[in-house]
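The instructor's notes for this session suggest beginning with a concrete chain rather than abstract definitions. Hand out the sequence below and ask the class to guess, before any prediction is shown, which regions might be ordered.
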Amino acid sequence: MVSQNGRQKEAPFATKTLQSSSLHTSTETNTISTATEELVKEELPHRRRKRLRAEAEAAAQNSEPTSTADIPHDASSRLSTAASSLPTTSLRRLLTTYLSLSKPRLTFLIVLTATAAYTLYPVPALLSPTTTAAPSLSTLTLLYLTSGTFLASSSANALNMLLEPSHDAKMSRTRNRPLVRGLISPRGALLFALATGITGVAALYVGVNPTTAALGAFNIFLYAGVYTPLKRLHVANTWVGAVVGGIPPLMGWTAAAGQCAQAGADGWRDLLFGQGAAGGWLLAALLFAWQFPHFNALSWTIREEYKRAGYKMLAWTNPARNARVAVRYSVVMFPVCYGLWYVGVVGPAFLPLSTGVNAWMAWEAARFWRDGGGKGSARRLFWASVWHLPVLLVGAMVLKTGLWERVWRGVRGEVEGLEGDDEGWEEEEEEEDEDGVGGVS
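After discussion, reveal the predicted structure:
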C-alpha cells in the first residue's frame, strides 16, 4: 500500500516535471527562432543574396543525378546484354554480338548525315520524268553510299572497342560491351573490323567514286588510329572526333557531285574544291560544330566516369572551358545555316526555321555555361542537341532550293525545259521548209 501510494503521489510530480521541461524547451526554441529572425533582419541585403545563392547552388549540386539514367544507354551494351541471355550456339546471339560491335545508334546517325547531304545536292529538275532532259540522282548509288558508309563506320567502331576494353570496363555506359563481357574474342572483333572496313570502302569505290571511298577509309583511320588513343592523352581528342563527325556529310556530297560532274571533271579536286563544293563543306561544318554542345553536355553528366577511366575530357579537366566551348560552337550554327541559304542549297524558308532551332540550343548552352552544368542544365542541353540535328537536316531536305516549285510544276503537268525544246524544233522545221521551197523553184 505504501509503495502504491508512493507511486500515486510520484506520478503527478513526474507529470508536472515533464510539463515544466517541455515548456522550458518550447521557450528556448521560441527564443532561438526569434534570435534567428533578428539576425536575418540585421543581415545586409547583398550578404543575404550571396548566402541564398550559395545555398541554392549547393542544393542543385546535391540534387544533380550521379547516374546516367537520363542519358540513353549505350546501344552496344544493351545488345550485348541481350546477346548474353541467348544460347551460346544461337545464330541470333552471334549476329546480335556482331551488331553490337558496330555501335548501331552512332552508325545510324552517320549514315543519316551522309544521306541528307546526298539528298541536298542541287540536281537540276529533280522531279523530271526523263533523265535525258534533266539527270537525277541514282537510287543504286545511294544504296552503295549507305551500305558502304554503314560498313566503314562499323569497322571504325569495332576497332575502337578492340583498343580499349580495359577502359570501357570502368564506365557504366560501356562496361557491358561485347569485348568487356567476353562475348567475342579480340581476334573475332579484329576479323569483323577488317571485313567490314574492306567491304565498305570497296563498295564506296565501285558503286560511288574513289573520292568518297578515300574519305571513308580516312575516317576509319582518324577515328580508330587518332581519336581513340588521343582520348587518354589530350583534350584535343574532342576536336578530332568532331572532324570524324563532319566527314560523312562530305562523303554524301561528293557522291552526288560525282554523278552530276561532266566527263573528265570528276577528280577529287573538282569534287572537293570545285564549283558547287561549298554546300558540302558547310554541311560538314554543321556536323563539326554540333558535336560540341552535344558531347560536352553528355560528358559533363558522366564526368566522374571519364575521369576514372583515364579519358582526358574537358568536362572534368576544365569544366568552365567545357561550357564555353559548348556556347561558342552553338553560336557557330547561325552563320553556317545562313551560308547554306547563301550558296543556294536551301530556300529562304529555311532561315527562320534554323534560326529558331539554333536559338533554342544556344540558349540551353548559355544556361549550361551560366549554371556550371548544374540545375539540370547539362541534361537540357543534351536533349536539345538530340532534337536539334534531325530537325535541321529534315528541315533542310524539305526546304531544299526549288523543290516545291518543281513539285508544283509536276502537279500541273509542266516539264522544265520542254517549251524551249519545242521552240527550237519548230525553228529548225521552218528552216528546212524554206530550203525545200527554194530548191523546187
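Then share the key points. The chain has two domains: 72-261, 276-411. The radius of gyration is 33 Å.
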